[in-house]
Amino acid sequence: MENFNNEELKTHLKILQELGFEEIILDKEYLPSEEILKEKKKMLDLINKEIQVCTKCDLHKSRTQAVLGDGNLNAKLMFIGEAPGEEEDKQGKPFVGRAGKLLNKLIQKAGHKREEFYIANICKCRPPGNRTPTLEEMETCFPYLKKQIEIINPSVLCLLGATAGMAFLGRKVKITKERGEVIKWQDKILLLTYHPAYVLRNPKEEETLFNDIKRAIEVAYTGL
Ligand code: SF4
Question: What superfamily would CATH give domain 6-222?
Fold first, then answer.
């Protein structure tokens, strides 16, 4: 059995309590990491159930399904985009269209696999015509992402695009100027970079996106 961080356990227990669990029986000082994974999955499944019927903003009207997220529930690094696109809305997974393929390619080029990380969006429902979500829509949906972050507990959040940056920083982000910046956010490190969809339109920026992704992975695994 592995040791694990007590603070992590406290956070998980607090979230379970908030989600309505009344009793948690622990017969040991700690749980095996397999158990932690099961609990994380359970908690995320509950959030997924909530978002599938969520009508808190108008984006529910045009969705096929809400898209929670995908990947390693113990990831040290989480990639966060703005909202599902057409393919994501169809398949129920984030970053599975052309932008997702580019993201996968650059992660692989850095010597890693997409499955090592967790991928999600600020808004869980596809905006009509793939428009940018409004600030109000992002603010309404943000608590779901916050819960995901609490459950998965990565140390680094790589924000893909100005819109994701704006949702976290609460102000407009000039991504061409601010990309590559490392910002402290609560107990996490935020790293801003381009959205892969932007790079598909501006292929000369692919190397820059690659370097930012590589850096985010290095910071997640070895620290700043
Ligand atoms: S985008 Fe978020 S807040 Fe809006 S309906 Fe979908 S799940 Fe609910």
Answer: Uracil-DNA glycosylase-like domain (3.40.470.10)
